[in-house]
Amino acid sequence: MERREKVGEEIEVVGARYYSKDFEWENLRHEVENSPSLRHHCQPHIVISSSSSSSGEDAEAWKSFHNRHSRGRFFKERRYLLKEFPELLDAHGWYTILEVGCGNGSSVLPILRAKDTIVVYACDCSMVALERAKEAVDAAEISQKLRFHPFYCDFSIDGFPSWIFCNACREKFHVEAQNNLSDVVANEEANAMRIAGTRDVQCCIGGVDFVTLIFTLSSVPFRSMPFVIANCYSVLKPGSLLLFRDYGLYDMTMLRFLPTQRVGNREYKRADGTRSYFFSLDTVRDLFLNAGFIELELEYCCINLLNHHNGKNMRRVWVHGKFQRPI
């Protein structure tokens, strides 16, 4: 028997495989699009004013959010990630992960606990969030805390720093991959030292084996998403994976927004200035394939959650995806 527990915006299945289909998304779509009270979510967005917020303003809104909510109920470890993305456990030897938009470390901690040979580089546009993530890792019983490297990056505006994957090493890695991947690293110990932060003797860390975009892409303006995805592609080693999870079209959160909070098609802004976009599978597919990725998995995750406070059923929709940079 599966037991589902609410964990922040997610649920975790205890003692069973991760559950992802309580209802069919097409049935929900039909219900929403035929409901007079919800139909405004489906109609084309009409721009009333030509003024729109800049990416910098969006980043400032998220910085303020993290200042207000750096602790408490907003910190829930996303342990389900290891069930949804078993590739994080299946890789052999030392390997690196770039967590884009790490927040206070809710995704970082379970990944670091999973294996002693994982090194995580984590970025965010909020220094407060990065400090909380580092505090969480320091407080946890995790071996080799040098395996965690937080750094500031407003990824909706700026590209990732060159010390992750410089142009010269991208070319070099491509040639080595074509010749013999086993000769890239002399031995596992040397590799561990290389990716554990010894950048003073290295021009870069040689790219990453995984990029995770977990409830991050929806927080940037839709117009900035191709830029973010292209930069994620650029720091992945050939053949490596990007793991994606975010809000899906007609999720309960979307249906709660008022018509006045729409700032684009499927794009909404809260009173505090933070925004959310709600993805269809077609939109996600177009974004990632246009950046050069290969689609491995892409589906809606449709979950019924029971609100124990009011007894109401909450229908949550998330998009789950795995994409590969081709060799």
The residue-averaged pLDDT reads 83
Beginning-to-end CA distance, first to last residue? 42 Å
Please indicate the count of domains: 1
- Anisotropy-based shape: globular
| Secondary structure: number of strands | 12
Helix percentage: 25-40%
Organism: Amborella trichopoda
Protein name: tRNA N(3)-methylcytidine methyltransferase
Family: Belongs to the methyltransferase superfamily. METL family.
Pfam families: Methyltransf_23 (PF13489)
Sum up the structure in keywords.
seven-stranded mixed beta sheet, 327 residues, three-stranded antiparallel beta sheet, Rossmann fold, alpha/beta
SSE layout:
Blueprint: E1 3-7, E2 10-14, H1 25-33, H2 55-68, H3 81-84, H4 87-90, E3 95-100, H5 108-114, E4 118-124, H6 127-139, E5 148-152, H7 167-179, H8 188-195, E6 208-214, H9 225-235, E7 236-247, H10 252-256, E8 262-264, E9 267-269, E10 275-277, H11 281-290, E11 294-306, E12 313-324
Parallel strand pairs: 3-4, 3-6, 4-5, 6-7
Antiparallel strand pairs: 1-2, 7-12, 8-9, 9-10, 11-12
Keywords: Methyltransferase, Transferase
Family: Belongs to the methyltransferase superfamily. METL family.
EC number: 2.1.1.-
